[in-house]
Amino acid sequence: xxxxxxxxxxxxxxxxxxxxxxxxxxxxxxxxxxxxxxxxxxxxxxxxxxxxxxxxxxxxxxxxxxxxxxxxxxxxxxxxxxxxxxxxxxxxxxxxxxxxxxxxxxxxxxxxxxxxxxxxxxxxxxxxxxxxxxxxxxxxxxxxxxxxxxxxxxxxxxxxxxxxxxxxxxxxxxxxxxxxxxxxxxxxxxxxxxxxxxxxxxxxxxxxxxxxxxxxxxxxxxxxxxxxxxxxxxxxxxxxxxxxxxxxxxxxxxxxxxxxxxxxxxxxxxxxxxxxxxxx
Length: 280
Hints:
The chain is an alpha/beta fold. It has helices at 2-16, 19-33, 58-61, 77-89, 110-116, 127-134, 172-182, 222-226; strands spanning 40-41, 48-49, 52-54, 65-69, 99-103, 119-124, 143-144, 157-163, 183-192, 201-207, 213-216, 231-236, 248-249, 270-271, 274-279. α1 runs antiparallel to α2. It starts with a helix and ends with a strand.
């Protein structure tokens, strides 16, 4: 009966509410089951309160992602980590005269980047896919480009940001070389990927049951960055205050899930997220 009511409420929410409204409805349903959830502070929008579980992960990984999403702005752990890294870097770098190319842009940090950078350019491979995944109109996208062969001049941007993109690209080395090519001297790229393996596992083809990933990345994946860039500095969840909830909280002890047979079990339910900053 509870499942039927939940499906009915989800259906009503999808038809009548904004993305933000639906997030708060889902959070309310979770609070009804667990009213004493921990409260956090979102660095992307300033919201303070409980975060929403990413229950849709059950369909992919067999387990939910707890306290994952800010109900106000929709930021996940990676977006909050991304924001905190840029805020820390801004203490020693003046971004007001610099250009940022944001690949597969997320709405939650867009306002910050527009205020912080002198020039802010958004890009994605497929405008229709961008619209479907983000829920935003195509007009929010400045250019369409393929990271493995970008139609952009050499040294045309100071900073490139791509979050959860490279795990979808089979020829990731070509993408890394292209990113380095378009960066100006002294520039850098922030290239986050989901880390859900002890060592990187190449699937051989895109897994449609895992968001189209072509690999599961381990911390060793950043060695590929070190082959292309002069220096790579990796920030971690543990480098910032716990109040922002930057860890991926997910039970991975019973892996592999049915849809991801190459994943291996991982101990514990609290996993580090990583934000590599790659300097040219």
